[in-house]
Each structure stands twice: as C-alpha cells, then as structure tokens.
Amino acid sequence: MDIIFLSEVKIQTKLGVPDWERLVPQTVVLDIEIAMPKSDSCKTDEIHDTIDYGAVVSRIRETLSEQNFKLVEALAEHICQLLIKEFKTPWVKIKVSKPGILPGVKALGVVIERGQKPT
Asked: Residue 66 maps to which CATH number?
C-alpha cells in the first residue's frame, strides 16, 4: 500500500480551551499521511487513480473554517474521519501542532492514527 503525505500544512481555525481563544482564528500546522487504497496512479499517471492532494487541503480548510474545537485531539479526530469517509482512505495518520502557544515551547499538539495500518 502506498502512502501520500502533506507536510506542514498551515490552516486557520478557531481552537482552544478558553472561550476567548476561539474568538479569533489561529494557525495550526498539520502533517498528514494518507494510505491509498490502490496504487494504480503509479502505472496510469492519472489523477483519478489517486487521492487529489489539492482537494484534501481545500476540504480540510473548508471544514476547519466552519468548525471550532477546544482540543487538538478533537480537531485531529475530525480530520481523520473526514479523510476516511470522503476520500475513502483505509488509514490516516495526522499530527496537529499549535505553534507558539506556551512560553518557551515551540509547539504543542497530538499525533493520531485511524483505520487499518498499511503493511
């Protein structure tokens, strides 16, 4: 099984435990790995035989502009389920980072995997 990845995707969303933190969009950084259910695109060189990276990023940006979350864990789960349901991936791994939130900490976040891990 092949895995495509998107690295350091910067997206604006409303995220944070205190209510005031969700008033203004802030940047989160995503690292995403998505298993392709089949690897025909390696042979056909056709976009319809793969997962469209641009469509993935556009869809994530759209949903995160409409939603807000208290926890990075809930945001990560939301994206994983979106990718599994809408893009038909059997497995996804996502890292969500919230940069510069705590003094002296470059970023905080979570890494989660959902679905059947590729072999």
From this structure: 3.30.1130.10
